[in-house]
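Researcher: Here's a chain I'd like modeled. Treat it as a single chain, no partners, no ligands.
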Amino acid sequence: MEEKDFYFTIERTGSAEFKDRGSKFIAFAFPVKTVDECKEKLNEIKKEHPKATHHCFAYRIGFDGNTFRVSDDGEPSGTAGKPILGQIDSKELINILIIIVRYFGGTLLGVPGLINAYKSAAALVLQTTPIIQKSIEKEFDVQFDYTQINDIMIVVKQFNCRVIEQEMQLFCKLKIAVPINRIEEVKFKLGELRNVEVSKVV
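Model: Modeled as a single isolated chain. Structure tokens:
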């Protein structure tokens, strides 16, 4: 698999509602970066919807796509989490969590009905939440003399790098996020400047 320079995700939270035979499925989409964030969001939703019969979810995190989880939360196996993840994957999204809260309406939907309901609710929330393309970035520490700040910032702006942290004293330190397709150019440009140290953040 070739390495991509960018990925798709969402920038803000969204919600949508799907109804089927009295049952109500409320879907929430969250931008997340860690498994802990997913747990926090799930706890928040459980507090907001304590009377819901099920709180099912799926998430996929990280550029390699290997960090993911699905939960049916008491629904028949494979009827909730997998259809939710299927919608995330069909849009090639990462760093996203979708939680679907179900209020039971008294009529059993059966396995096909449940799969359709969770899939539809997930699809709806992804339609209402803007999907964005972001550059995959690597972080670097740059150390330099304060007289060089202008030269450094020109390079940072020229190659669409983001400044994450900065310490400005006699010797300055920047932590920057560099789009992976510009790393070689950025290193070359910074390497042309005197006494500038560039090191990769592990």
